[in-house]
Design a protein that fits this description.
Blueprint: H1 33-44, H2 46-63, H3 68-94
Helix pairs in contact: 1-2, 1-3, 2-3
Length: 107
Amino acid sequence: MSAPEFPKFANDEINYQPPVAYEPAVAAQGNSALSIVGLVFSIFLSLIGILISGIAWYTGKKEGRKTTVAKVGFFLGLFFFILTIGFYVYIFNTVDLSSYGVNLGNP
């Protein structure tokens, strides 16, 4: 009794190549979590948001990630920081602090 012969298929040629091993996972190309954190901090604590977004922008550019959210966080934080400084300058120039007992050196 001989072994049964199986039909030949096109893939049964001599130059058969074994399956390729899995390649290592590629890092995600989207926005980093640091840039999202920087955007949120830019709205509430602008100076910290500027710093975090700046770091996320720098590292994202170095790693080849998208940096749009980090840029938005950086410039939004800069806008809110300038707005805050302007607000304090306006308040200190328009409010008469002497009525509250504060003397800033003016006789």
